[in-house]
Every structure is written in C-alpha cells, then in structure tokens.
C-alpha cells in the first residue's frame, strides 16, 4: 500500500481518479483491502489542489457501489447453491434460510451501514443478493452509504493534509474492533449451532 500511495502521488489527476475508484471497487470483492486509507490519501491530494474533491467523491462512491452490485449478483446467482452444496458445511440449510429471513427484515439498515462495517462489506452485499432484496433499492442505499463514508474520509484527508497518515491508525483500530465484534457474533452463532445439534442428538438417543 505504501508503494501504491507513493506512485499515486506522482500520477496525473486522471490516473489518480482511476486508481482510487478501481481500488474502491476491488475492496468490495476481495476484502480485506485498505481502500479507506487510499481515499484518505486522495483527500490530502485534494487539500494540495491536485485533484477535485467532488469528482473524487463521486468516482470512489461509484466504484464502491459497483463492487457492491457485483457481490450482490454473486449472492443472487450462486449464494444459496454455495451454501447448500456443502461448501460451508458448518452452516446448515435451516440456518441459511433463517439468516435470509433476518436479512429481509433488517437488510436495508445493514446496507446503509455497509460502508461503516469495515471487513464485512462483501458479506453484506452477498447476503443482500442471496436474500433477493430489490436490486435498485439496495444499489441506491449502497451508493448513499458509500457517499457519506467517502465524504468523511476525503474531508479528513483534505483537512489533515500531509498528516493524513494519522487517520490510518484510527482506521486500523476501527477495523480491528469491527472484526473482533464479527468474530464474537460468529462464535455465538457456532456455539448455538453446536449446542442445538448436541441437544437434538441427545433427544434422538433417548428416543
């Protein structure tokens, strides 16, 4: 990432826009990818007058949204097949359908919060597609989420200027907290699954 940032600082504005929007796109498909740090750096370039704030904001948000749509379609086309064919054998089909119902109920909130959930963005878009939430609505909400998040990152980078790296440490800490919470949720999920399976096995033995 440091090498990419160094090279980015030497490019003309066109390639800066292409790079930051491309990285924002890739991050949704191949997480974890530190696109947020790159957007903050782009903000510092805005502060130096090298690129335009609003154009950078639109392009990074469009890149993020397109990446979201790609993972949405993966979930829509292949999600249930992937889970039901045993690619993830620790998640039973009944649980998959339960997650789908839960996502249909709270999915729109998760999509709006999507950009603020570092490390989980691909998961949110994947389940949005698998749950068959309306594509147009989810795309609009994803764009709004990306727009707000990228605005904050670009603005922070613009104000900090050459000290933009300060945000990097905060983003790293934020990412660790979110990841830790995600691990806890997964552990609780697996714990409940194995507990319920054990109870069912005991009942079957008694019968």
Describe this protein with a few key phrases:
single chain; 8 helices
Describe the structure.
- Helix 5 packs across helix 6.
- The protein has one domain.
- The mean pLDDT is 75.
- With 207 residues, the chain is an all-alpha fold.
Taken from the alpha-carbon principal axes, the silhouette is elongated
N- and C-termini, Cα separation: 59 Å
Largest sheet: none
Number of domains: 1
* Radius of gyration computed on alpha carbons: 20 Å
The topology string of helices and strands comes to HHHHHHHH
Question: What is the oligomeric state here?
Answer: single chain
Question: How would you summarize this macromolecular structure in one to three sentences?
Answer:
By secondary structure, this protein is mainly alpha-helical.
Question: What order do the helices and strands come in, and which of them pair?
Answer:
Elements: H1 2-8, H2 13-27, H3 35-47, H4 53-84, H5 93-112, H6 121-130, H7 135-160, H8 165-206
Helix pairs in contact: 2-3, 2-4, 3-7, 3-8, 4-6, 4-7, 5-6
């Amino acid at each position: 990432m440091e090498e990419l940032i160094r090279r980015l600082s030497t490019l003309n504005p066109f390639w800066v826009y292409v790079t930051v929007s491309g990285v924002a796109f890739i991050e949704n498909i191949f997480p974890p990818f530190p696109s947020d740090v790159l957007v903050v750096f782009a903000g510092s370039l805005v502060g130096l007058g090298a690129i335009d704030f609003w154009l950078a904001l639109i392009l990074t948000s469009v890149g993020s949204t397109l990446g979201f749509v790609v993972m949405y379609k993966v979930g829509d086309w292949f999600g249930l097949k992937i889970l039901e064919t045993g690619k993830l054998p620790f998640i039973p089909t009944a649980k998959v359908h339960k997650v789908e119902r839960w996502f249909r109920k709270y999915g729109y909130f998760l999509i709006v919060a999507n950009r603020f959930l570092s490390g989980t963005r691909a998961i949110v878009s994947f389940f949005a597609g698998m749950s068959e939430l309306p594509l147009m609505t989810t795309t609009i909400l994803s764009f709004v989420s990306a727009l707000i998040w990228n605005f904050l990152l670009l603005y922070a980078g613009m104000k900090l200027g050459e000290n933009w790296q300060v945000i990097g440490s905060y983003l790293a800490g934020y990412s660790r907290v979110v990841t830790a919470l995600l691990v806890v949720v997964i552990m609780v999920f697996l714990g409940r699954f194995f507990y319920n399976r054990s109870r069912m096995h005991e009942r079957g033995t008694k019968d």
